[in-house]
């Protein structure tokens, strides 16, 4: 395992951390096994979220006797002061700890959300209070859209210490902003390293990220001890070879032609469909086997794939020429709507 400093937080983290989405399909016993294997392999960073159903609770149980060996990160979708204050307490309770190392504002999407979070009675105020009270150590943010990413690291760089955004062999639209994070010493946390399950060669996917000096830490979701061993094998920490580069190009060609990068250029859809979210949620079902969770997230969308009237406007805007109408039809079928 290799270790590095998580930007301004000063925390010493393993460059591969434990992502907490797949633990939802396990139980407390398996969560313990995952945690134990991670420690064996030198992983000391764990990322979960209020929104990952039982994830915080399972990890709370699993970390009972080894909390001090871990740098613990979680996040909340709350945007206002009261909501965030409440969520911090719930996270502390669920994780069975009195201190969370990093608390993140989860998946900020729009300018309005950003302004609300950092406004007078916003979530950020509750995070600062918790930090002053010694309940959390550091404050970060996560996003899926480039616009939110850019705004957060350019206009709120004095407030956030870490930033999380998707990055992978097939999803490198954030590369310039990730470099900006490195220049500003904002710890950059890579989510979706295997592009939501679209890349089969996990070892190469992680190696690609570990070899990018702008990326601080990558947090692949791991649902059993075998996945932990695979994601921490020696190969992950070797330099990329010419063969690897060739393989990456092949993956981009194969996966890239049918893969949504969540760039958002297809918006707005006249029917009000959030196109990238439809693809994101269906992947939780298809690739992670989290059918119930995927469907519950899908159900929160005001409009979904079945509302598509096939006007084709989005396809004229997608820089990756994705057959969005066909893809949405498959999403609608998959989600039983
Ligand atoms: S084809 Fe469907 S998703 Fe695309 S813009 Fe038209 S209604 Fe929206
Ligand atoms: S469908 Fe195309 S334009 Fe829309 S978010 Fe995905 S990659 Fe971007």
Describe this structure in words.
The chain has 337 residues and is α/β, with parallel strands linked by helices. It has two domains: 3-244, TIM Barrel (Alpha-Beta Barrel), CATH 3.20.20.100; 275-334, no CATH class. It has helices at residues 28-40, 55-62, 81-94, 111-118, 123-132, 146-155, 175-184, 202-210, 225-231, 242-256, 275-288, 291-299, 313-317, 324-334, and strands at residues 3-5, 12-14, 18-19, 45-47, 71-76, 100-108, 136-143, 162-166, 187-191, 217-218. The strands form two sheets. Strands 3-4-5-6-7-8-9-10 form an eight-stranded parallel sheet. Strand 1 (3-5) and strand 2 (12-14) form a beta hairpin. Helix 1 crosses helix 2. It is globular and about 55 Å long. It starts with a strand and ends with a helix. The structure holds iron/sulfur cluster (2 copies). One iron/sulfur cluster binds next to helix 11.
Main features:
TIM Barrel; alpha/beta; binds iron/sulfur cluster; globular; 42% helix; 337 residues; two-stranded antiparallel sheet; 2 domains
Order of helices and strands: EEEHEHEHEHHEHEHEHEHHHHHH
Question: Major β-sheet, in short?
Answer: 8 strands, parallel
For the largest beta sheet, what order do the strands appear in spatially? 3-4-5-6-7-8-9-10
The bound ligands are: iron/sulfur cluster
**Total of helices:** 14
Shape: globular
According to DSSP, the number of beta strands is 10
CATH class of the largest domain: Alpha Beta
CATH superfamily of the largest domain: NADP-dependent oxidoreductase domain
CATH topology of the largest domain: TIM Barrel
- Rg estimate, integer Å: 19 Å
Number of domains: 2
Query: Are there runs of 5+ residues with pLDDT below 50, and where?
Result: none
